[in-house]
Every structure is written in C-alpha cells, then in structure tokens.
Amino acid sequence: xxxxxxxxxxxxxxxxxxxxxxxxxxxxxxxxxxxxxxxxxxxxxxxxxxxxxxxxxxxxxxxxxxxxxxxxxxxxxxxxxxxxxxxxxxxxxxxxxxxxxxxxxxxxxxxxxxxxxxxxxxxxxxxxxxxxxxxxxxxxxxxxxxxxxxxxxxxxxxxxxxxxxxxxxxxxxxxxxxxxxxxxxxxxxxxxxxxxxxxxxxxxxxxxxxxxxxxxxxxxxxxxxxxxxxxxxxxxxxxxxxxxxxxxxxxxxxxxxxxxxxxxxxxxxxxxxxxxxxxxxxxxxxxxxxxxxxxxxxxxxxxxxxxxxxxxxxxxxxxxxxxxxxxxxxxxxxxxxxxxxxxxxxxxxxxxxxxxxxxxxxxxxxxxxxxxxxxxxxxxxxxxxxxxxxxxxxxxxxxxxxxxxxxxxxxxxxxxxxxxxxxxxxxxxxxxxxxxxxxxxxxxxxx
Length: 447
Hints:
Largest sheet: 7 strands, parallel
Mean pLDDT: 93
Shape: elongated
C-alpha cells in the first residue's frame, strides 16, 4: 500500500494559527520566534491590540510579543491562502443545557475550507469529544473545499487530498510556571507520515517533548479525560467539605492532615468553572449518551460541582440569620469574578452562580475584581463590577456591607489581609472565605 506523500515537509511548512485567545496567542508567539506565522482572528479589536504589542489576556508579555518577529496578525481570510498548515485554537464551550456548542469550531472550519489546497494540513487543538475532528470537521472541509480527507483508510496518491492532525491544548491560564513550552504535548495525525510531521512541528517549541498518540481519536479522548478526572476529584472533595461542615470539622485542616501521606492527591473544594474542568466532561458525556451509554459517575460529579454556588450562598444566609442580619436588601460584597486567581479569564466563571443566588434572596450585590475587564463582564454576564473598593478602606470608617464573600484568591486580596477586608463590613457582618485566603480564625465561615 502506497501512502500519500503530498503534504509539506517540516522545512516547507507555512504556518497559520486560527484564533488568538488564551490558547492560540502563546502558541503563535512561540512559533513566531522560530518560523513565519500568520495569526488569524475574527475579532478586529483583538488583532489591533496585538499589532500594538499588547495582550489583554496577560498570557504573554510585551517582551515576548516583540520576540515573535516572524508573527503577523490579520482578520482577512484571504491572507490564509499563503499557508499550508493550519492550527485551529478556537473555543469549544457548552450551551445553557450543558450541550457541546461547536459553533466556533465549525465556523473556523468553514473558513479554512475556502482556503485549503491539496496537501494542506489542518491541526485542531480545541477540546472536543472523541471522533469529533474526523466526524464533524473533516466532512465540512471535504464538502466546501472539494478535496478528499487523507487518512489510513484513504492513503492513495490522489492529488486532491488534505490531512488532519489533533494536538489538544494544555494551556493553564494565569500560570507563569507551567507555560506552553514546558508542558508535554500530545500529538497525532491522520496518516503515519503526517503524525510524524505534526509531532516534529510541535517539538520545535516544546522543550519537554511530546507524546505521539496512536490516532486522532486517542488524542481527543486523552484530552477530554484529563479534566474529567480532575472534575471528579474536586467533586469528591466538595462533598467531603459539605459533610465536614455538618460535623463542625475544618476541611482545610483535614486535607492538610491527609496530605501528609505521600500519595494523597492535593485537591481543594470550591467552585469549578473555567474553560476546561467545568466544560470538558460534558463533551465526553454527550458522546457517551449518543452511543447509548449513560455515564452515572461523571454526571453525578458534574451535578455536585454545579450546585456549589447554591450551597455556599445557603451557608452565608444561615450565618447572617444567626447574627440577626436582615437578609432582605442586605448589601453583599463579592470579592473576585474571574474563574481562578491572578487571571482575567471570565470564561464559565461560577462566581456568577453566587451572584445570581444572592439576588434571588433580594440582596444588593457588589462585585469587585482588580483583574477582570469591566466591559467583558458586562458583555458576558450583564455584570458591572466596581472599579475600586469603597472609601472606608482609606477613611477607617465602618463599611457598608452586611456580608463579604471572598470568592477568588487573588494576590491583592491576600495582601489586604483580614483586618483590612473587614473594614468594608458593617460593625456586624459575615466574612466568608471559600478559598482559604485567610487564616482559619480570621473569617466567620470557611468552605
């Protein structure tokens, strides 16, 4: 059997990155230090800021953007025609019914279908369910381009073929230690030769090496279970925290004690949001249900984690009532809106569950987060965060809040300390620390 060898060689690859967000930009920057790269995004504002050498996601800094001397930015699909290898890094969210929303992925694929040529390679990094790349994306590319998808089942020397690869993203937003170059990369390709080529391409920038998977489906499955495993572990710890709360036992103290054993996994309870852990399991369960299997354990973990906002607010309300604080029209300050600490990423933040639940109790809620974009918060959630904390911090006067919800462990909040944070509250108030920012005796409630 003769395999198709029309694809480019490593030296002849002309690369384009589709999507310049938290995943695509760091990838484009690293490749842009090594070879010519076209960075494509449909958001003109985003492209303009990158041309000015600024990254609002803070995943790259000004110096790194300057070092990527071979990286250019565009919103024009026509500019993609000069490339022969495309890496797709668009988001794959879920809808309000927790079903996969492949709209960004299919739109990006439709764009590429208009520009790809025989022998071109399209590599996907977006998180999907096993089989999605070949079952959903390949037909779109075939239908709109008139080319044939080349794989191990169709390996003939046909000059009208394109190839696929899959290399799941492993970006950790806000993490300055585990960067794209220092995280091992899974790679795959639709033919053995393309798999080798995709692997060699990523090895140009990944300093810790790669793992070449046996197939695209294996690579897709590996990605989706990475975060499903974490989700289930956090669900277990969340359930333990609820149990320990009812028993009057400090959860963090228990976890520290158990963590003294070498093989105890260091998970912590809390809200489970973000673009991966709170989303990826639904891609796997969607596919499982489509093939006739109902995933009991995975969905049970998801239900528990998705219910944590309601549980946390119920605990706060009980504490307020015990102190005879009027819940109706109570003023509550929620500190933090990003889905994780020291990061402006608002995608799928579950802090909004706390805000929504508090408003259901007719509380007046203020949100403060020094990291997030006010404009983005308004667009995504209809929330307008405070631009600064109240002046009571400066005057030393009693604050205005009946309750303070410490929801995200930003460094700024840690540096403020309990005494300063409490100045924001009325003489009688409740301070709830769900992220262990403060010492055990410094808050009124802890998760």
